[in-house]
Amino acid sequence: MNAAAISAHIEPIRHEYAEGRSLILPALKYAQTEKGHLTREDIEAVAEATGFSAAYVESVASFYDRLYLQPTGQRVVSVCVTLSCMLRGSDELMERICDRAGVSHHGGTSEDGMITVQEAQCLGYCDHAPAVQVDAEQTRGPLTLDDADALVDELRTSPRPDELWR
Ligand code: FES
Q1: Which residue has the higher pLDDT, 64 or 44?
Q2: What band does 158 get if pLDDT is binned at 50, 70 and 90?
Q3: N or C: which terminus of the chain has fewer CB atoms within 10 Å of its end residue's CB?
């Protein structure tokens, strides 16, 4: 996405933010709608549109689980590994989801391009630990290991709805 398109998106909302740097996040989210992830050109376009350096914009992008600096699979499963979920078995859950998806225990994208698994920090669903988020849209929990298998099987056979790319 180019800087002009990003500027057209953020200028109408600029007044809602006390500081200019706060616009970086909505600008990145908007830029990501084009391809489902952020390219180097997207980072540079956001930098130009917001007036911050590309290095700073990239540091913001790399902080958030839901901004992707690499292409993802059709579906993205984010496994919470923060304390409440960890105490309730998120390590085993992460391993089981990775095994079922066919990626390393550190996460990654399955060979068929259907599923990306990644670790995430607290999803705000601690009372349902261990929890996961699907496509940054649905939070599910508590998940058993059998639930993990069923989740991966479900996602593998259901491409991401078009509207979730937006
Ligand atoms: S610690 Fe996992 S959702 Fe909060």
Answers
A1: 44
A2: confident
A3: C
Cβ atoms < 10 Å from Cβ of 92: 13
- Please, what are the domains in the chain? 3-63 (1.10.10), 75-159 (3.40.30.10)
User: Which of the four pLDDT bands, split at 50, 70 and 90, describes residue 104?
Assistant: very high
Q: Ligand 1: distance of its center to the CA of 80 in Å?
A: 6
Decide whether any atom of ligand 1 lies within 6 Å of the 123 Cβ: yes
How far apart are alpha carbons 78 and 3 in whole angstroms? 30
Describe the strand order of the beta sheet including 108-109 as a list of residue ranges.
108-109, 115-120, 75-80, 132-134, 138-140
Query: Cis link prior to 12 (omega < 30° from 0)?
Result: no
* Helical (H) or strand (E) element with 138: strand 138-140
**C-alpha to C-alpha distance for 96 and 122, rounded to whole angstroms:** 19
Does the Cβ of 131 fall within 6 Å of ligand 1? Answer: yes
Q: Is the shortest distance between the CB of 67 and ligand 1 below 6 Å?
A: no
How many whole angstroms from 96 Cα to the centroid of ligand 1?
18
Ligand 1, closest atom to CA 83?
1
Whether pTM exceeds 0.70: yes
